[in-house]
């Protein structure tokens, strides 16, 4: 009895460590194979790969003093990053397969240009779009499908998969909405105050008129005073 329990516990521990070590599921493996055989995916992969090859070669030619793309060698390279985010792949992937992510890779890490980096769109099938499967995906792709690739596309050992989190999107939207609402408060206060300000200027115009009328009266009075002064002066000279 006791031995049986121990065995079961050991088995559970083994399963747990296997899952935390990043074992991929059978569903994920199958859907990956299916995707890689899909004619639409193959077509877009072909165009992405050839386009990215040009970009990478061009980037190396500008960022290295001496660049040898064919042998994967470069001297005095700095700031060598080729961006190959392929819109057709992103659209196809998000509509038919799963989520379009980005693989950051150093294709010439071993051959002699370790600073050269390439960022490529990588389609993660829906069945693989979960923590453990995603963690294992690139090493599986790198190991199992190496025969499908060659040259600069061969090495996926230094690759990092980055997927935009599905949680961050809604969070950003919520934050923006809250910020808009908060911004609306001072704006609406301003808008509600504006007519009052106009009313105040109107009143002050009336006041101005009233004041100017009063001033007119004062002037008239002053004129009369002047008259009296003058006459009094006149009177004084007399
Ligand atoms: C993607 O396309 C390239 C270029 O045609 C090809 O060499 C590569 O084998 C393709 N990748 C896969 C996994 O089929």
UniProtKB/TrEMBL annotation:
<feature type="transmembrane region" description="Helical">
    <location>
        <begin position="167"/>
        <end position="192"/>
    </location>
</feature>
<feature type="signal peptide">
    <location>
        <begin position="1"/>
        <end position="22"/>
    </location>
</feature>
<keyword id="KW-0732">Signal</keyword>
<feature type="compositionally biased region" description="Low complexity">
    <location>
        <begin position="229"/>
        <end position="238"/>
    </location>
</feature>
<feature type="region of interest" description="Disordered">
    <location>
        <begin position="207"/>
        <end position="238"/>
    </location>
</feature>
<keyword id="KW-0812">Transmembrane</keyword>
<keyword id="KW-0472">Membrane</keyword>
<keyword id="KW-1133">Transmembrane helix</keyword>
<protein>
    <submittedName>
        <fullName>Uncharacterized protein</fullName>
    </submittedName>
</protein>
